[in-house]
């Protein structure tokens, strides 16, 4: 079945550091890929998405590129802020209404 | 404002009692979903509904029930048969018709004492 594997956290970075959160997937067909963010005590918000190979999703300084050859969708940001502290979820949708989520990566950014 | 509301934000119940979690959306979305979130386990799908009066089991439906009598409402009942009900419950919706993005409510944290 479909699955998403993302790097385990927690990840702790200093403000202005470079962020990478790895995400790889297994799916039949050609899935759409997503990054969602969850701030403490809240629901999930869509951060960015990509629907086909080589697409790059971007939002709020975050980027991720859909790499079909490596089945990856790694999240990057050049300079993190304290306000980026949250849990980040990688997810995919392949051929149905359902989303398959990774387990989440908690990011803490310290001043 | 359009969006998804879940109430209450915190809910406490005694073991053996059924409890119903509310989810309402005014986005005119066809599809709605219930997820359970446990620490370190990501989100797991409990039930989903693609249209009024129809719903399907997700990956962990045992001990839960739902109804979809109105387009805007998708309540989840956690029954006494659910062995470990304490968790964070998230409701989501999307327009349906093969669209990708799901929109999430703020969640309800259920604690069973």
Brief characterization of the structure:
With 111 residues, chain A is mainly β.
Structure commentary:
The complex is a heterodimer of chains A (about 110) and B (about 110). With about 110 residues, chain A is an all-beta fold. Chain A is about 0% helix and about 50% strand. Chain A is built from no helices and twelve strands. In chain A, about 40% of the residues are buried. In chain B, about 0% of the residues lie in helices and about 50% in strands. In chain B, strands 2, 4, 5, 6, 9, 10 and 11 form a seven-stranded mixed β-sheet that branches. Chain B has a four-stranded antiparallel β-sheet with strand order 1-3-8-7, with no helix packed on it.
Largest interface: A-B, 20 and 24 residues
Q: In terms of per-residue confidence, which ranges of chain B show pLDDT below 50 for 5 or more consecutive residues?
A: none
- Euclidean distance between termini CA atoms of chain A: 41 Å
Q: Which regions of chain A are unreliable across 5 or more consecutive residues at pLDDT < 50? A: none
The biggest sheet of chain A amounts to:
6 strands, mixed
Number of strands of chain B: 11
What's the mean pLDDT score of chain A? 94
Instruction: Please give the largest β-sheet of chain B.
Output: 7 strands, mixed
Secondary structure category of chain A: mainly beta
Please give the share of residues in helix of chain A: under 10%
Helix content of chain B: under 10%
Radius of gyration computed on alpha carbons of chain B: 13 Å
Estimate what percentage of residues of chain B fall within beta strands. Answer: over 45%
| Number of H- or I-type helical stretches of chain A | 0
User: What would you call the shape of chain B?
Assistant: globular
Succession of helices and strands of chain B: EEEEEEEEEEE
Oligomer: heterodimer
Record field, number of beta strands of chain A:
12
**Gap between N and C termini of chain B:** 35 Å
Order of helices and strands of chain A: EEEEEEEEEEEE
């Amino acid at each position: 079945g479909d699955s998403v594997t993302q790097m385990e956290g927690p990840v702790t970075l200093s403000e202005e550091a470079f962020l990478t959160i790895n995400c790889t997937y297994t799916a039949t067909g050609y899935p759409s890929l997503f990054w969602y963010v969850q701030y403490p005590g809240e629901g999930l918000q869509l951060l960015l998405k990509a629907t086909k190979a080589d697409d790059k999703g971007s939002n709020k300084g975050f980027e991720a590129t859909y790499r079909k050859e490596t089945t990856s969708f790694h999240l990057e940001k050049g300079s993190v802020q304290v306000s980026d502290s949250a849990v980040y979820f990688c997810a995919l949708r392949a051929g149905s209404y359902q989303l398959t989520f990774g387990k989440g990566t908690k990011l803490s950014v310290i001043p | 404002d359009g969006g998804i509301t879940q109430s209450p934000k915190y809910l406490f119940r005694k073991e053996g009692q059924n409890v119903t979690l509310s989810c309402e959306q005014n986005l005119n979305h066809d599809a709605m979903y219930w997820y359970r979130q446990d620490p370190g386990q990501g989100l797991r799908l409990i039930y989903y509904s693609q249209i009024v009066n129809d719903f399907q089991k997700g990956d962990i439906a045992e001990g839960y029930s739902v109804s979809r009598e109105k387009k805007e409402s998708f309540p989840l009942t956690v029954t006494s048969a659910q062995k470990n009900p304490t968790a964070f419950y998230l409701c989501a919706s999307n327009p349906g018709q093969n669209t990708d993005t799901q929109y999430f409510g703020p969640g309800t944290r259920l604690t069973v004492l």
